[in-house]
Every structure is written in C-alpha cells, then in structure tokens.
Design brief:
2 helices; alpha+beta; Ctag/Cox11 (Pfam 04442); 31% strand; 211 residues; four-stranded antiparallel β-sheet; 25% helix
Length: 211
C-alpha cells in the first residue's frame, strides 16, 4: 500500500471514530433527556397550566355553587409496568366549589416489588386553571409489593368562576386522567434504559397499601 492510500485509510478511520462518538453522545443525551422530562414537564405544566394541568395551590373549596359538573375518571398503564390501575368509581356529579374525593386502585400483578410514578391532566384543557387538587398521588414514587393492592386518593374542587368564563361556561363534563409508568430506578434494574420514553422520572417516597 503506498503512502497516499495509507493516509486515506487513516483519515477514514478517524472520521468513522468521530462519527461513532457523535452518535453515541447523541443517544446518551436523548436517554438522559427522556429520564429528565417528567420533572421538567411537571414544572412547566404547573407554572403555565399547559395541557390541562390543574392548580395545586392548596386553596380551600369555597362551598357548593349552583352549577353541577360531571367528573369522569380515566386511567392508563404503560406496558412496561405490570400493574392493574383503574378508577375505583364511575362518573361523579359535583357542584362547583364543593370538594370531591375520588380513588384510583392499583394492583401489582408481578411476583416482585415494583415502583411506579403517575402523571395527570384534565380535559378539556381549558378547564385546567379552574380545577384545584388538594390531595393527589401524582409525581410521587409509589411502590407495591408482589400482589399488593392500594387505593390512592384524590381530592379536588372546581372553581365556580368556570361558569363565568366564555371559554368554559358551556362545559358540563370534565375528565381527570392518570397514567402510571415505571420510575427511573425500576427502568435501570429492568434494563429498560435503552428504550426509556419520556414517562421516566422519580419523585417522593412510596405510599402505603395493604397486601
């Protein structure tokens, strides 16, 4: 091989190495962004009210008004989380300004402890700024032992001003949606880092339940 051919081969190898490092760095960055996105999304939504994120200021319910809303409850579980997760009640009729209490029920279907984290929103999205949560299990680590079932409470009220806003006064039904996913720790233990989606995150300590 002459000097020119050798130089070209060396240059090609260097370019391939740089390209490999670049791709690896990009993939690592995307995985890191995926794991960080739940806390970032949480902060963004709570500040802006984006995507139907509800208010969590802890204000007391002012008392029942005349308007009555239908509150529906929805639940989804990511395929990597071996839980059964569903609302524990059907549609609730709730006067605006009155505090309501609802429950979601989760059961670990696996033979080992599993931790999950929930995200939430309400629809229609324009209702978010009028929907106040006073107690919730969202964005907190929930650990269920093998076969354990747990009831998770949600308390909330809807601001009576929803009936004065031209964008919301015609709304009669509000849907509260919770989605459960694996936490970062569980994803790492299960080897799911390479396929982790934007749902991965970590929060507070585990809640309590009964086997």
């Amino acid at each position: 091989m002459d000097d020119t051919a050798a130089s070209r081969e060396t240059l090609l190898r260097r370019r391939n190495r740089r390209l490999g490092f670049g791709v690896a760095g990009f993939v690592a960055g995307m995985v890191g962004l995926a794991f960080a996105s739940v806390p970032l999304y949480q902060i963004f939504c709570r500040v802006t009210g984006y995507n139907g994120t509800v208010q969590t200021a802890g204000l007391a319910a002012p008392g029942a008004g005349e308007q009555v809303l239908n509150i529906r409850f929805n639940a989804t579980t990511h395929p990597t989380l071996p839980w059964r997760f569903a609302p524990a009640q059907g549609t609730m009729r709730l006067p605006v300004g009155e505090e309501g209490v609802a429950f979601y029920r989760a059961r670990n279907l696996s033979d080992a402890p599993v931790t999950g984290v929930a995200t939430y929103n309400v629809t229609p999205e324009v209702v978010g700024k009028y929907f106040h949560k006073t107690a919730c299990f969202c964005f907190e680590r929930q650990t269920l032992e093998a076969g354990q079932e747990m009831d998770m409470p949600l308390s909330f009220w809807v601001d009576p001003r929803i009936g004065q806003d031209p964008n919301t006064r015609g709304i009669r039904t509000v849907t509260v949606s919770y989605s459960f996913f694996r936490t970062l720790d569980d994803a790492e233990r299960a080897g799911a880092v390479a396929t982790a989606g934007p749902h991965v995150g970590a929060g507070g300590g585990p809640a309590r339940g009964t086997p």
